[in-house]
Amino acid sequence: MKYNYEWTLKDAKFTKDKGKVFSCFACGGGSTMGYKLAGFDVIGFNEIDPKMAECYIKNHNPKYQFIEPIQTFKNRDDLPRELYDLDILDGSPPCSSFSMAGNREDDWGKEKKFREGQSEQVLDTLFFDFIDLAKKLQPKIVIAENVKGLLMGDARPYVSRILKSFSDAGYRVDFKLLDASRMGVPQKRERVFFYAVRNDIECETIDLMGEQPFIDLDFNEPIITYGEIEDVDAPPERLFPSTTKMFPLVVEGGNFSDVHPKGYFFNYNKVHRERVLNTITAHTNGGGSYHYAVMRGLSKKENCRGGTYPQDYNFINQKHKYMVGMSVPPVMTAQIADRVHNQWLKGIK
Fold first, then answer.
1. Looking at 138-230, which runs of residues are DSSP E strands?
2. What CATH number is associated with residue 65?
3. 349 and which of 2, 121, 202, 220 could share a cystine (Cβ 3.0–4.6 Å)?
């Protein structure tokens, strides 16, 4: 594997010689850590949630920090000069409005917030605020991540709007659905990545496909099963009564809905030792993956391994499941960042 899923911040060697990155919707810094692993210098971040920002600052000590809505941030006229000379502008606009596990169409156009302390905002327009920022800063490359549901059903027209907005901002753009489990990440996590190159950038590889920038994003890392990341020392824990009642009836690798009389609890599952972990979710009030035999959810060590978070990450008072579930796995971003550097940035004329 190119990057190890189990690592620590204290032992990591961040060379910072591949280019400058600024991260938006940064959460706890999942993508930031990926860029750092790949050798980039992440000089700052924007995040609306002060609690997430506190974790980001504690673990990354950024040069620039903007803890405010992106709508406010993009309209600032006092941004540092360095932000107008970025190699990569990175962003993961909140995407629950498009998730197949959410309310989708019923939530489109409505103001909502993820958690206490955040400002309300219309989530399905944040991607366009992010592109507005790209138009203002004009980085060489823009990389944005979103859920698989963006490509499905009535959400698909949003992709056309995104592509047109990038074009209007002065970028050639394309996108690809990637599965983290084929990129050295011990969980099945499918995400859409948009990658855009400024129109005036000349590079032999970029120009091969004309209007759509070409980059090889096919990864064939071996699957990492749950058995390889299992925390064998994790103790049992107290579960909700309904979960406790069903737990012994669910087979290894099975779903709790299989044993519920009405098919409820479809987002609860038991892991299988010989299969890759399901997507780590941010839900902290139940749901997600449970051990195949011991009555417990995923331990902190397992969530960090599955999400490729550093084992010594300081979550402060945040729940590790929420933070990891909200984040782009660092190794997933590192794999993409490495390709961007080797295939694009190194060849820019």
1. 141-147, 171-179, 190-198
2. 3.40.50.150
3. 202
